[in-house]
# Entry
Amino acid sequence: MKSKLIFIFLVLSLNNSLYSREIGQTEITAENGVEVFQDEKYYLIKQNVKIVSDDFTLNADEVKIFFRDDLYDIKIINAFGNVILISETNLIKAEGDELLFYLDDEKLNILGNNSIFSNEDIIIKSNGKIIIENSSGKFEILGKKSSLESKEIFIKGNLINGKMNKLSNKNSIKELYVNDDNIAYIKNNEIEMFANIIKYDDQSSIIELENNVKIKSKSETIIGDYGILDTKKNSYKVRSKDTNKVKVVITNNNE
# Structure
């Protein structure tokens, strides 16, 4: 999601109907002007800012743009207040109180309550921070009410990190680590999993659960200290590290 910021066209007016952005240009409109800080190498754009490029549209209350040697050589976009980033090229949408966009690394940080990142495959939500590295596929979600959802899986926890894998133009989870001192949660197909720590590696196709483990299906609930679920075989087992006791609750679905 790297924009070709060859030329920046600044329109500091409420009425921009006389201007037309050309391909390869980035158009920035604002209500309260631009301040350029040459020594610090950034410029500040104030009030109702809108940035339109070939690859994305960004709306925010205020935007700081960091550059290298000149105004056109942009490396970081830092947006504040009611931030909405939309990339129709990459089918990406991001919303939050603050956004940091590192163009060289294709890295996106979204901060604040009700932060959201979505593409055609996943929806990520958090009241803390969402970090997406587009080039490597790595992601990190920090804070209360953090979650990741796709058609195949729903994940909830205070810390969620991992790596996405591109398969047949679709994002799938390659690596996953979830941690929550209260309880982390994953729902996969018809199985629900609860634990303080949940790990997944697509090479082994194993979901590993540690501490306060509960695996719940339509017919039974198994409780213990440690659990393993094989996603390929759709099989699972639970054991207890300390007491050697495992609790099983069987549900009669015929009633």
In short: Residues 1-18 have pLDDT under 50 and may be disordered.
